[in-house]
Amino acid sequence: MIKAKSKDTAMVSGIKSFTTQKIKRLTAVPFKMSNNFIKAKDGAFYDGNKKYKYLGANNYYIRHKDKKLIDEIFRQAANVGIKVIRIGSNGEAESMDAIDKREKNRFFRIGPDYFNEDAYREFDYVLDSAARHNIRVIIHFTDNWEYYGGVKVYTKWAGLSNKNLFWTDETCKKFYKQTIDSFIKRKNTVNGKLYKNDPTIFAFDLMNEPRNEDDITSVTLANWIDEMSTYIKSIDSNHMVTTGMEGFFLRSDGTHYSGSDFILCHKPENIDFCTYHIYPASEYNNFSMSTTEWLIKRFIKSAHETLNKPVVMEEYGIPNNNPDFPKAKWIEFMTETFFNNGGDGANYWFFIDPDYHYGDGNEINWTQTEYMNIFIKISNVLNK
């Protein structure tokens, strides 16, 4: 078990361990987003010629909110040093009859042929607001899960009953590429920028948490990732592309139930960096600090040494009110462990406004000084 470090113990990266107390809010180092597209090279991110690391967050609901709240979320995120936010950016419905008309704008695509311009216009504002607040965004094109449609809807459009046929069916591939086109080729109605020419976009996730349980060797999913990342690069050479994967490793027999091996699926040359998602305390996990540290180090080593690519801890979270997992201590521990071992970017799950009451328990908001000071303390080292 790793013991909490005293507050005056220097970390190898220059980050000092920080004991949260009832103290005043710290001040984040101001930062400004450059006009460069962030690139990946030799296992690191670069902003121009300068190495780039970031502490970030997730927010899946921001695009559904009014403009004032969108601006406030980005403003408050910047105030604690958050430089990259991964945003919920998919929404597919089988048909207009399948949705509540009051929630129409949650969906970018309603049926295979109807692209909801109102939803895209809302997203235009999100991108413009992010830029005005010096924050970059990660966009994912669809979701393996069914919260807002996802892969299962694509297969229904194609008349298929098996969700995992999505990875090989040519009609599904055509529909998915149309979704890619609808974002990358879009002209922002707020600022006039083509998405493919907008450095506000940090990267594209092919999907949130792709899996193919019907091929436990992961070969089918890896081939799909290769094809789709190559397609994106053929129409957009500016932006990085990644998988959006959770991060599983093949067992000794060369299989894993998820069909989504971390190494194999991040190998394609047009995948710029690796991702993983980690929740030590969840319905399925009850990790010790030593196990969590081992996993974080394994992901970093696999990305840097095996694949020579940067790695992003794209989702990580600690639940509220679990006495076995003191939230502040664990957030600090996981974030420091990641960056002190060479990690490149981290997005906490998730950053909310204080009036949002539909979280999964892992959320943090900007009124919680104990958590915000952890972000400020660490981001001040990364952003200096």
Give the helix/strand layout.
Blueprint: E1 39-41, E2 44-47, E3 50-52, E4 54-59, H1 67-79, E5 84-87, E6 92-93, E7 109-110, H2 117-132, E8 136-140, H3 151-157, H4 170-184, E9 201-205, H5 219-235, E10 240-242, H6 262-266, E11 274-278, H7 289-307, E12 311-316, H8 327-340, E13 345-348, E14 351-352, E15 364-365, H9 369-383
Parallel strand pairs: 4-5, 4-13, 5-8, 6-7, 8-9, 9-10, 11-12, 12-13, 14-15
Antiparallel strand pairs: 1-2, 2-3
Helix pairs in contact: 1-2, 4-5, 7-8, 8-9
Give a short synopsis of this structure.
With 384 residues, the chain is an alpha/beta fold. The chain has 9 helices and 15 strands.
Describe this structure in words.
The protein has 9 helices and 15 strands. It has helices spanning 67-79, 117-132, 151-157, 170-184, 219-235, 262-266, 289-307, 327-340, 369-383; strands spanning 39-41, 44-47, 50-52, 54-59, 84-87, 92-93, 109-110, 136-140, 201-205, 240-242, 274-278, 311-316, 345-348, 351-352, 364-365. It has an 8-stranded parallel sheet with strand order 10-9-8-5-4-13-12-11. Strands 1-2-3 form a 3-stranded antiparallel sheet, with no helix packed on it. The radius of gyration is 20 Å and the shape is globular. Mean pLDDT is 94; it is low at 1-20.
